[in-house]
Write a structure and sequence with these properties.
Strand order of the largest sheet: 10-9-11-8-7-12-13
Order of helices and strands: HHHHHEEEHEHEHEHEHEHEHEEHEHEEEE
Structural class: alpha/beta
Strand content: 15-25%
Number of helices: 14
């Protein structure tokens, strides 16, 4: 790492730490004013944002990036309007900062409670989605944190423009511009410095592919909020409504293939397999989804005239495809389904389709994932859909934050004591 990169990152860290104190005391009115200003300017500059974004897109195409990558990078009028709506939704959310839980009087006479406070300085490392610049900055801003954003080099022009819009919004509300900083170098060593700056950064949130997150897990000294894989399952129980199962499982896989909450493995109870698999798998094949199946599923489907099936291998059960590929297994009962999820799942999102309340309750209690669903598409595992505003990421860790991380996930609690001159005896 060059000394220039180290000095630049240290300077960004120092300025973020100084700004974090101003953010911790900022009023809800100031924070909301900044967010509304950003939303207004994002809409006003929609054409400019698209024009600048096109520079990033053309560079990505010239560098041979695939269609899925280019799709994540591209900002359309719909993408830009969604960013503005996300900002406005965050404005509508209650500000958690400074809230004190009910004070309880102790035997000594002191009153004890807990106050919701910002984490401080958050570092976010992400790849090709420039909308993350707005989404992440907005959540950090509303929760009273300063944030350092390090987007992918492929989106550098888009991210730089969006950062300027955010900083103008902060200034308009009387808040320090240094509360949101974008690392403008494309030098990868900046990431290496950022993830070790424990004196300035309180938590790192990585948003990207497995290689990025695996690297950070190996090298980071700053604590992280993260998930590595999104191997999401849906189990169709013997007592499922067939029409519901078809509708929900179609959506869970095909509504979009790339998100981490898309279903990757379908588990079907053997008692209902003949009723549900032919209809559902015809939909999948008509949409171009490759089906990788176990022997029981193959038997059911071939008896109904299906062809072009692929035998599922061991590695298929542990693969996050993020593509039009689906693994399907026929299971004997809910226990086999939950055992499969325990063995191969990534503790992200798993769902059961059933009209049997006892089976649903067992699934909710026993499946150890950040989001567990009954009769709903796994695609709902999302901060916006959960009413959190634009999420900063999804965590499958068990400490601090779990599931989609919204405002509360970017805060902590500290004890506060209200005394009246009491002394300890």
């Amino acid at each position: 790492m060059s000394s220039a990169i180290k000095e630049m990152m240290q300077d960004i860290g120092m300025r973020a730490r100084a700004a974090s104190r101003a953010m911790a005391r900022a009023s809800s009115e100031q924070k909301n004013q900044a967010l509304l200003h950003i939303a207004k300017v994002v809409r006003q500059k929609s054409e400019e944002i698209q024009k600048i974004n096109q520079v990033d897109v053309e560079r990505a195409k010239a560098n041979g990036q695939d269609a899925a990558f280019v799709d994540r990078l591209t900002m359309t009028p719909k993408t830009i309007e969604t960013m503005a709506l996300g900002l406005e939704q965050i404005v509508s959310l209650e500000d958690p900062i400074g809230k004190i839980s009910a004070l309880q009087k102790q035997a000594s006479g002191i009153e004890l409670g807990q106050m919701r406070v910002p984490l401080g300085v958050i570092g976010i490392i992400y790849e090709s989605r420039p909308n993350v610049t707005i989404d992440a900055a907005a959540l950090c801003l509303k929760s009273g944190n300063a944030v350092i954003l390090r987007g992918g080099s492929e989106a550098i022009d888009s991210n730089t423009l969006l950062a300027q819009i955010i900083q103008d919004g902060l200034a308009a509300a009387g808040l320090p511009k240094d509360a949101v900083q974008v690392v403008i170098t494309t030098d990868r060593s900046a990431v290496g410095e950022m993830i070790t700056m424990t004196q300035y950064i309180d938590v790192i949130v990585p948003r990207g592919g497995k290689s990025l997150i695996a690297r950070l897990m190996a090298e980071a000294r700053v604590p992280m909020i993260k998930h590595l894989d999104g191997i999401c399952h849906t189990y169709i129980d013997a007592d499922a409504d067939v029409a519901m199962a078809v509708k929900v499982c179609d959506n869970a896989k095909t509504q979009r293939y790339a998100p981490c909450n898309a279903m990757e493995t379908l588990l079907v109870n053997q008692e209902i397999a003949q009723k549900v698999l032919p209809t559902l798998c015809k939909i999948y094949q008509d949409k171009g989804v490759e089906l990788r199946v176990d022997s029981l599923t193959r038997k059911t489907l071939e008896a109904n005239g299906f062809q072009n099936l692929v035998d599922a291998r061991e590695e298929d059960w542990q693969t996050e495809y993020l593509a039009p590929i689906l693994s399907i297994k026929t299971v004997a009962n809910i226990d086999e389904a939950m055992n499969h999820i325990e063995q191969y799942g990534s503790k992200h999102t798993d769902a059961i389709i059933t009209n049997n309340k006892a089976q649903a309750d067992r699934f909710l209690r026993e499946v150890d994932s950040a989001s567990v669903m009954v009769n709903a598409s796994t695609r709902f595992a999302d901060g916006f859909e959960y009413g959190l505003g634009a999420e900063i990421g999804i965590s499958n860790d068990k400490l601090h934050a779990r599931g989609p991380v919204g405002l509360d996930g970017l805060t902590s609690l500290k004890y506060v004591v209200m005394g009246h001159g009491e002394i300890r005896t």
